[in-house]
Amino acid sequence: MTTADIAAARSANPVARLLTAVLIAAGLVLSVDWVSALTALVLELGLFFAVGARLEPVLKRGAVIAVAAALTAITIVLYGQPSGAVHWHLLLVTVSDGSIALALATFLRVLAIALPSVILFADVDPTELADGLGQVLKLPARFVLGALAGLRLVGLLGQDWQYLGYARRARGVADHARVRRVAGQCFALLVFAVRRGSKLATAMEARGFGAYPARSWARPSPFAAREFSLIAAGLVIAAAAITVSVATGSWNFIGAR
């Protein structure tokens, strides 16, 4: 892949990234086995670096997902349905060959499903995603723009929480009863958020953001060959994972469980 191809893939439409992650996840949820998950994971790593993902962010985000997957796997090892040889048993805890195999498959599957969503969306601008959802997927403008506006306001919650704390300390009501203080501050933050949301909705309606059916968009959201190539890569990964799993006899269709 040339430098131009890498740059094109990195600037691909967010909708294409979304569909790629959905295709990979759809192929992996059909079976609970470690072969398909490991195959998809290896191919995904190749895809990440092919589209120009840097090693450090991949490792950092992958480490967080690995911790979550490991916690899930530990739970399955201890409390999964026992089968085969039993290695340890205590009250409700049973560690067997079946629970270990299922835990390994789950660990790899969580990584294979979560990594594309995290890595491919690492540098996606919410506005570009909203443009794609409205223009490419033709989702209702009210839903898309409302979600975008809400997402833009999430960053204000931390600032509001800080200011509420300052105000309560200035009034002398934040020096004792910490549990009550936190509960009251959470309620006040909820009231602030509802009021701000109502004002924002009124302002957006007044400016024609909810116009239907003639909704215009300030920025075009192109969907061309590079987007179809990225989606095709996701389809190939899902198909290859299923094919390898079936060929090795490891395919375990989830509906048959």
Automatic annotation (TrEMBL):
Q: Which organism is it from?
A: Mycobacterium aquaticum
How does this protein lie in the membrane? Multi-pass membrane protein
Which parts pass through the membrane?
18-51, 63-80, 100-122, 230-254
Q: What is this protein called?
A: ABC transporter
Database matches in InterPro entries = ABC/ECF_trnsptr_transmembrane (IPR003339), ECF_transporter_component (IPR051611)
- What does the entry list under GO cellular component? plasma membrane
Protein location: Membrane
Q: Which key words tag this protein in UniProt?
A: Cell membrane, Membrane, Transmembrane, Transmembrane helix
Would the keyword Transmembrane be found if you checked this record's keyword annotation? yes
Q: Name one Pfam family in it.
A: CbiQ
